[in-house]
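Record now logged underneath.
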Amino acid sequence: MNSPAVLDVRDFGAAGDGKALDTAAIQACLDACSAQGGGTVWVPAGAYLTGALSLHSYVTLHLDAGVRLLGSTDPAHYPIIRSRWEGVDRDTYAPLLGGANLTHIAVTGRGVVDGQGAAWWQRHRAGSLAHPRPRLISFQDCRNVRIAGITCINSPSWTVSPLRCENVTVDGITIVNPQDSPNTDGINPDSCHNVHIANCHIDVGDDCIAIKSGTEASDRSALQPCENITVTNCTMLHGHGGVVIGSEMSGSVRNVVISNCVFDGTDRGIRFKSRRGRGGVVEDVRVTNIIMRDVLCPVTVNLYYAVGVWGDPDVADRRPRATSDNTPTFRRIHISHVTALDARLAAGFIIGLPEKPLEDFSLSDVSVMMAPDAEAGYPEMADGLEIMQRTGFYLRNVSGLRLHSVSLQGHAGPALQLVDSCDADVFALAARSPEPGVPVISLCNVARALVHGSLPGDSRDQYVRIEDDQSHGVMVNGATAQAVAA
């Protein structure tokens, strides 16, 4: 590695013994690399104890196999910077690896970045920190960012968190944080453009991947969308959600493709969340080729997300409210080619706002098998929900639903409950009534629905049941629904 373009941190005094604080030596090496016009800062095998480090443009920090970069547990080793935490611009501790207003930067190699987060988690639970905890890796307002190959463990909070960055690639990294560690999300692109997440393994104590764009608590005129995001070929374990959009989405999220991933033991699989007051638009999301196992609910859309505002009557109200710029919009979300095994609470929980229904939503070629030993619980975080257990697909306030070639096994109650919705097309739904007197499809206050191409099973008179006298324009296999209405 002897090259003018490659600098060795040991030549700048780094001890690499896991005891001496190597912050100054590693930072001096980064600075020298920048001063010569860029290159690679090489960290050879060893244990390096360090506080916050700042990268420079045109510099790659390469952690060789056998490296263990240990984050200091002393808050004094992390300067206070202006950043964003949970959607709000505020003062925070600097990340272990970070930088702002940079271009062509990278963190690569086969080494381990260990945030030694236990001390930070304890301080967080005790409420003894003056500022939000450090993230492990966070660049803001940067261009052409690459993070590849490394392993990240025990992050104090969010693990990889680019903010307002453009052209970000996160490839082939491993993230492992304890299941009970607070807010240790895996990868959280926030108000970023052109993000590529691929070939990663994520096992964390919160959302595995969360796509964000700030909240209404910040200056909305300064918010930027998170857009042009691809997530592919990843495995995700535990955590609150596999891939999550929101709840911080006031700057909007658009053009997202999620494909070829496996979720194992995440609370939810694909999860969307927001609430009144957030504003913003989530649109043009495609999800395909996903395998899930042992999830509470494979797909959720929750426009009544109550974390932080539990009991707020404006957020919780199920009646229509006047729309404004503060009303979130969700539209053109399409999910296909999904297999979910041992789902526990519901096959899908989708609830839009009555004043702004979820628009143009589809589930196609989706197969869900419920766990026979599932315990009851709440499918999402919202006020006023009923406990569910092996429930089918529950959808409310949806305009333009397409549910095609969906199969469901092991459910209790109707396979599909559609409420307060319009313009639904249900084709080739493969499900049976779980017991006599229970319909396969239950409709309540539904305007214009077509159910066709489906096998009715043994109880055709209970295949579709209309639960009210407000529904209209419902057709079943080309016939009006009166023949099968309750």
